[in-house]
Amino acid sequence: xxxxxxxxxxxxxxxxxxxxxxxxxxxxxxxxxxxxxxxxxxxxxxxxxxxxxxxxxxxxxxxxxxxxxxxxxxxxxxxxxxxxxxxxxxxxxxxxxxxxxxxxxxxxxxxxxxxxxxxxxxxxxxxxxxxxxxxxxxxxxxxxxxxxxxxxxxxxxxxxxxxxxxxxxxxxxxxxxxxxxxxxxxxxxxxxxx
Length: 194
Description:
By secondary structure, the protein is α+β, with helices and mostly antiparallel strands. Helix content is 34%, strand content 23%. The chain has helices at residues 2-20, 31-44, 97-109, 138-144, 159-167, 180-183; strands at 54-56, 58-62, 65-68, 71-75, 78-79, 87-88, 94-95, 114-123, 126-133, 136-137, 149-150. The strands form three sheets. Strands 1, 2, 3, 4, 8, 9 and 10 form a seven-stranded mixed β-sheet that branches. A two-stranded antiparallel ribbon has the order 5-11. A two-stranded antiparallel sheet has the order 6-7. The radius of gyration is 24 Å and the shape is globular.
């Protein structure tokens, strides 16, 4: 959508520059025409609006982060184990729960196209978005299967899905794990000792 809009703006800017600044003498400056083309070109390459869905080839980075085309997307409203996180299963045996979470998301998406609706925030260089396969919210799916927990600092309420996963001992809830929201202490949250 933004590519088409950019092309139309570039054409309109070029036409306006030609109409408003005709070349009636060799001494007349072509600066306004050049400026109009530059503005049109910048509009063409402007980033997508916040409300514009992101679609494209998907690569799973971890249980809560995907790449859609060239955009790094953090699934809004969830906290999944980091890729290197280890948890304990029901027999108190360690297992790579971060990789298990990422694998589950990757298997669930398969080759399907996903659409992500940005929510305006950014976390660690990733755009926060609600992503869907068809009508299915991937964040809700991850929490409902026990591969992630709700990030209660966000506006979405995935509490019921988390309670069902906990009650059925699914995924992370089948053993012991460190809450991924607790692992994400931001440098700004750390208060230096005095």
